[in-house]
Amino acid sequence: MSVSDRIRVKNVRLLSDNHYTLKTTTFEWRRANGEWQTQHRESYDRGNGATLLPYNLGQRTVVLVRQFRYPAYVNGYDDLLIEAAAGLLDNASPEVRIRAEAEEETGYRLREVRKVFEAFMSPGSVTEKLHFFVAEYEPQMRVSSGGGLADEGEEIEVLELPISEALAMIGDGRIVDGKTIMLLQYAALHIFR
């Protein structure tokens, strides 16, 4: 039995399409005991995205970005967020989009990007699936200062950090972004062994 055999969608109502799409759905879910249960859920659809961690194995460094994130602020985080470069796919392939996003945010034009995994980051309410990439960088690959696109409200600071410091920043709370933690831990396990 597949999941589609266990769900009957009864009603979908649009709550907002101001920036992305927020819907409320009523559905019946067939429990493991065979009983059908009515449930209600809201889902936020902002599209899928991609994220990337540039690394330099010889220098043992990574490139991250720092920027303001209103949802983190309103939830009590009173600092700029340190993150891996990321963005929505906007109808492009994950690899094409992450190359462009990395250059916009970090200023690095990367040669080879390698997809390492995909993950749903908040599957209880957000439909977004992230595609995770890593890419080696060299200083000569920097073609601009980065910083993002001002007309999209971006004001991004580029950080080049030793991998040891970036990992320590997870432990002391300076890095609290989930996608970034996942990529740094991937790098610790598979790149900077």
Kindly describe this structure.
21% of the residues lie in helices and 38% in strands. The relative contact order is 0.18. The strands form 2 sheets. Strands 4, 5, 6, 7, 8, 9 and 10 form a 7-stranded mixed beta sheet that branches. It has a 3-stranded antiparallel beta sheet with strand order 1-2-3, with no helix packed on it. The longest helix is centred in the middle third of the chain and has 13 residues. A hairpin with a 4-residue loop joins strand 4 and strand 5. The radius of gyration is 19 Å and the shape is elongated. The chain is α+β, with helices and mostly antiparallel strands.
Spell out the helices and strands N to C. Answer: EEEEEHEEHEEEHH
* General shape: elongated
What percent of residues are in strands?
Answer: 35-45%
- Computed over alpha carbons, the radius of gyration is 19 Å
Rounded mean pLDDT score:
96
Q: What's the main sheet like? A: 7 strands, mixed
List keywords for this structure.
193 residues, alpha+beta, 7-stranded mixed beta sheet, 3-stranded antiparallel beta sheet, elongated
Summarize this, please?
The protein is of the alpha+beta class and 193 residues long. 21% of the residues lie in helices and 38% in strands.
Show the helix and strand layout:
Elements: E1 7-16, E2 21-30, E3 36-45, E4 49-56, E5 61-67, H1 70-74, E6 81-83, E7 85-88, H2 94-106, E8 113-120, E9 129-136, E10 157-162, H3 163-171, H4 178-190
Parallel strand pairs: 4-9
Antiparallel strand pairs: 1-2, 2-3, 4-5, 4-7, 5-6, 5-10, 8-9
